[in-house]
Every structure is written in C-alpha cells, then in structure tokens.
C-alpha cells in the first residue's frame, strides 16, 4: 500500500511546476505528519486543481532548480553548462531542461527523482551527435 508520504514524494516537484500556491497548501496539509481521510480527499482535490494550471517559466524554473540540487555536486562541467544554458532558454512551450534532468536522473540513478512524476513525464532528449552522447556518460 502506498503511503501519503510516498504519494506526495511522487507528485511534489510536479505540483511545484504547476502552482507554488498548491505546493504550499499541500505542505501545510502534511505539516504535522498526521494523515486522515479528510486530508487525503483535500490532497487529491489539490492535485486535480494543480493539473488544471499550466506551468509557467517561473514555476518550472523553481521546480527544476530543486531537481538540479540532486546533481550539482556530482555533475561534470559540461553537464553544469548544459543545465545553465537550458535554464536560460526555458519556456513551458520549449522545455528541453526537463528531459535533460531526466537523463541525469537515469545516469546518476537518483531513485527519488526516478519515482517522481515530473521526471517520469519527461521524454529523454534526442541526442544528435556522438559528442552529446559521450558528454552524458
């Protein structure tokens, strides 16, 4: 059986990418680390509400910066530069950063992120050159 903590871990960065207000509302629900049927219903309603809110550049940036924190101390200089470059050009319509972060989650085997909706929903980037492919090894 999945616990509410596991479910929240799965959705956390995805919610953050959609709505900071919803993210904060769910954090408030979880604050005392106790759960009830009423809180569960509220949690699922908040998830449904978040799904209706399209990500913005600001909300995506915040969520991806949190995800990046899992890699920043172990990444290569090329990966760091790629992250910064993709972050600077990020838009919800042209999101290449999410797929790049998914590639890093796979490369570095960050289980927490691999189980998260924000990473699971991303398609891996298409690598166009051998150099691109080699830089992620």
Please describe the structure with a list of short key phrases separated by commas or semicolons.
137 residues; mainly alpha; 2 domains; 9 helices
Describe this structure in words.
With 137 residues, the chain is mostly helical. The protein has 2 domains: 48 residues; 79 residues, no CATH class. It contains 9 helices and no strands. Helix content is 66%, strand content 0%. The longest helix has 15 residues. 24% of the residues are buried.
Shape: globular
Question: What is the string of helix and strand elements?
Answer: HHHHHHHHH
Largest sheet: none
Strand content: under 5%
| Gyration radius, in Å | 16 Å
Number of domains: 2
What is the number of beta strands?
0
Summarize the structure.
The chain has nine helices and no strands. It has helices at 4-18, 20-30, 37-51, 57-68, 77-88, 97-107, 111-114, 117-120, 130-135.
Task: Write the topology of this structure.
Blueprint (H helix, E strand, L loop, with lengths): L3 H15 L1 H11 L6 H15 L5 H12 L8 H12 L8 H11 L3 H4 L2 H4 L9 H6 L2
Helix pairs in contact: 1-2, 1-3, 1-4, 2-3
